[in-house]
Automatic annotation (TrEMBL):
Protein name: DUF817 family protein
Lineage: Bacteria, Pseudomonadati, Pseudomonadota, Gammaproteobacteria, Nevskiales
InterPro entries, A to Z: DUF817 (IPR008535)
Residue intervals passing through the bilayer: 28-51, 63-82, 88-107, 119-142
Keyword field: Membrane, Transmembrane, Transmembrane helix
Native organism: Banduia mediterranea
Amino acid sequence: MLAAFDRLLQEPPGVTEQSGWRLRLLELLWFGLKEARACLFAGIIFAAILLMPRNGIAGLPRYDLLLLIAVLSQAWLLRYKIETWDEFKTILVFHSLGFALEAFKISEAIGSWRYPEFAYTKLMGVPLFSGFMYAAVGSYMIQAWRLLNLTCRASSAVLDELGGCR
């Protein structure tokens, strides 16, 4: 269902037949829909963070439940081809970098942050779900890039230097 919606967003009907203020209004509407759709994973993650009770649910710690929601959400996105495996790999890089940044921030040398609640899924004092906050940003960027049909245009020398940008 979402794959069909994505195709509709990439080729919105009726836009090319319009001109003037109607064209601008339709473009604004479709842009807003594409942006909202690109925020799907981020919306799930941040809604879960905001709505999850501080004490968790049914004896399960909050951080562990947030990790479960993030993993199940990502599995759902992959299962229904809302995100591709290549997109998932990129999101995994965001998750890994985000987790590393969180571990750095709570280290004794820096000490600018801490995760006080208990969790079974903490590593180095950092709950594993924390990397998904960064992954949510990565997911948004990837989805927006695809839905807005963005491309890079540069000279072949620049593309060769960057390893290609498409």
